[in-house]
Amino acid sequence: MLRALPDESVQLVYLDPPFNTGRTQRRATTRSVRDPDGAHLGFSGESYSRTVEALTSYDDTFADYWAFLAPRLIEARRVLRDDGTLYLHLDWREAHYAKVALDALFGRDCFLNELIWAYDYGAKSRRRWPTKHDTILVYVKNPETYWFDSEAVDREPYMAPGLVTAEKAARGKLPTDVWWHTIVPTSGPEKTGYPTQKPLGVLRRIIQASSRPGDWVLDPFAGSGTTAAAARGLERRSISIDAHPDALRIASARLDLPVTPYAG
């Protein structure tokens, strides 16, 4: 599908590929109902039972991860406009290899940022520093012409508002290259049931900064459709690609769109 897209046709490419964790990623969708004999205790002392309604999963293991990812990065660079930007979202397992690969593909002068998305959720190891961040590498097609609009980005609260004026505290500050943002809450309205779903707030920030209303945004690993949902809310056009049946089903339902299999 990527090979079918025209050269220099999209403004922004966001890639959130499988992280090569070496395990199967799973996410269960559950339903809770009141049950006097249920095993779970809820508010006001009422008992309830919990059933699994759906289980989505995919295998996140690759014999040769870079043989899988490298051709897609090459195509992603090809379809970028001259003023376009690529965001590659990985974790600690592959991010350092990706930096070297993208330096070779784009050129080191096209490296814009290493973003750290930090969160605090889930189990914490007691045998090492718990890993609670992802890395997003940012490369531009042309370092002389790339589009970046920091003023369009949603501001965030100051960590020490007492150290700035009341006017600045009320307005908030521009984000830095370290983003503190929660993951998708398990019971929040964003939750789709797809494993490794990313929060809308992270994608909104990327799209606001590196594209304009009406621009095309591409996500070659669409998953739950977060990129497309954020793009729609910001009046951008989007292309979402995924091969997994669960991803196609969940993203299409989220966006209220029919599934269109690619027959190229």
Write up this protein.
With 264 residues, the chain is α/β, with parallel strands linked by helices. It folds into two domains: 2-22 and 61-255, Vaccinia Virus protein VP39 (Rossmann fold); 26-60, no CATH class. It is 24% helix and 27% strand. The protein is built from six helices and ten strands. The protein has helices at residues 65-79, 95-106, 166-171, 200-210, 226-233, 245-255; strands at 10-15, 23-34, 40-41, 47-60, 80-90, 111-118, 133-140, 178-180, 216-219, 237-240. The strands form two sheets. The chain has a seven-stranded mixed β-sheet, sandwiched between helices. β3 (40-41) and β4 (47-60) form a beta hairpin. α1 (65-79) crosses α2 (95-106) and α4 crosses α5 (226-233). The longest helix is centred in the N-terminal third of the chain and has 15 residues, at 65-79. The model is unreliable at 25-30 (pLDDT under 50).
